[in-house]
Amino acid sequence: MTALEKVLDALREAGHPVTRSGDGWRSTCPAHDGENRTALAIDPGRDGVLMFCHADITCKPEVIARALGLTVRDLFDQPKTGDPRRAELVATYDYVDENGELLYQVCRYSPKTFRQRRPDGPGRWTWSVKGVRQILYRLPAVLQAAAAGQTVYVVEGEKDVHAVEKAGAVATCNAGGAGKWRAKYAGPLTGAHVVIVADKDAPGRTHARQVKASLDGRAASVRVVQAVVGKDVADHLAAGRTLDELAPLDDGQAVPDEQDTPGARRVRSQPLTQITRRRRQYLWEHRLPLGEVTLWVGHAGIGKSQAAVWLAARVSRGELPGELYGTPTPVLYLGTEDSWEYTLAPRFDAAGADSERVFRLYVENEHGDEEIVSLAVDLDTLREEIRATGARLVVLDALLSTFGSAKLTEQGTVRRHLEPLARLAQELGIAVVGVAHFRKASDSNPLHMIAGSSEFGQVVRSAIGFAPDKDADDGSCILSLIKTNLAPSSLPSLRYIVEPCGVQTDEGLTDVGRFVLLGETEQSIEDVLNREHTTAEQRSEVEQAAEWLLSFLESQKDGWEAPRAEVVKAAGKEGFTLPTLNRAKVRAKVRHKSGGFPKTTIWIHPEFATDSDDAQSSHPRETTAETTGGETTGDDWTDQQKQPDEESSAPQSSQRHVSETTEGASDGPTGEPITHSDKCAVPDCPAAPRRSCWTCADHMAREDEFTEAA
């Protein structure tokens, strides 16, 4: 596993959304509050992974790694030969004034980056346009067309301008695309017949509103149109359409802001007699409903993505048991976490997919660069793409990538994103699969383990979980329904493996994983998680300390026994507290003996203890220890009195004072049975004020030394 893969997996398992950004990734910074979903930049480096936190420039990679449970060593790979990939300049767009003088350039790079620069002497550039006059692209042509009362197309990007010019018309745009329009840009368009071409997304429609508002009273006429095919005018023209075929948007009026029309909303009611009853249909019989969003959730590396590829491949071939069995059907697949060239396309080949029916899903922005689909702004164009391709399955891998900069910590964020998607699925009769991750924390309920927000488990009507079966000899895993409001709850789980498979690529043979179903199983994902969760709970700190204690005594050269002081010191180095160690002694049934001057206590492995061990001195505190079934010195006496172990041989009183003593227990100096209050935090000698008994003080002094050493 590469350093980059380690970091990405650690982020996902910790519940931090990871999204593609050019050749790298963006996520929340685990060393901060997680509010900024793009604060942390993760990029591949020549020798490992590069991380930079934009929220706090003092946040160092080692701090980020530590927050993820990684070390600095985990951030590095073996050194590789060759130079790291550099951004390549692919196009320059000259912004010249009315006299043809170059004021500045917009430079487009691959991977996607846009920078602006201004000339600074012959052959030199300054990478800043601060203080430079901002103008429209192709300004001389715009002024000439406006003076002649001709038509000028206002588009979002330079690429669109060139496409319109190639079609024989005059076009312009502002630098920076949508949201960067200035009121002064309307001046050169005075007298022109302006056609505003809105990109088919929310920013594009907002941009069109801004442009139209600035042109009112200046332009001879203003129309707002949009592409019939694709997202923008470049797509429209590339598809063979003409400028005359651009579709009017709202009859040439400004694009309406839905939130500005409260009068269109009205609460209504409908009798059940008017509601058509329909039969629930399944893309995958009883497991994957049509018209719904289904979560596909499990830990990283469990095979969720391979399973999604297998599913899409079966649908493309018409081989999935369900409504579309026997009918090869198109699929839209959004893959944000793996390379299409190196991973996803070869996986589809290994799965036997029909490559003509599997479509890579992505967004192209106004500059012609690719972005990730955003559920907040791209549902309209997603609907059009689904209709255009005839897809009945849409896979979003990973689902969190489509949430953009939304704050999952805010109540209702998941609902605001998933409910419109569910309505789209119902409207078009498609199945949507959203691939999500389990967080690291263990829980017996898989719906509580979904990373990001607990709302995921509440909003979706169907969810399929993936988990490894550590008891399986063949290394297989289990998938099963973990939530369904639609299918029979008795549906059996399925067992699967991900096996290596060789695939022929354009550059030779490569190995990928292939998802293979093995059949039904009586086990469920809940069974697997419950088993793991129970094991984690039952293996308490006391039990761990008991195991360590026995092992420590077994390692002693002097006959499986050791002085108590050495045991306490070694336990402190292992991170066990004194109360935990004392309870572990009882749990492990370790015996002890005391003697000599100064008195020394020896702890003995139970298999080598004799009947004479556990002998008590005549000191009242130590005599009372017989009632607890073990040796007590210092604070551990109170700990055992307050938290008796179930394996202790003597009964414990639930009252405030211990008034029962075993046979042979000596009385105190007053002749009364020895009693101690549970309230005592330190030993209290019945014969004298606290800390005045030399024996008690001796023990307390030794335990104070242990506390300081720890």
Automatic annotation (TrEMBL):
It comes from the Bacteria. Residues 248-271, 608-683 are annotated as: Disordered. It holds the Pfam family AAA_25. Residues 649-664 have a biased composition (Polar residues). CDD domains: TOPRIM_primases. Gene3D superfamilies: 3.40.1360.10, P-loop containing nucleotide triphosphate hydrolases (3.40.50.300). Transmembrane segments: none annotated. This is AAA domain-containing protein.
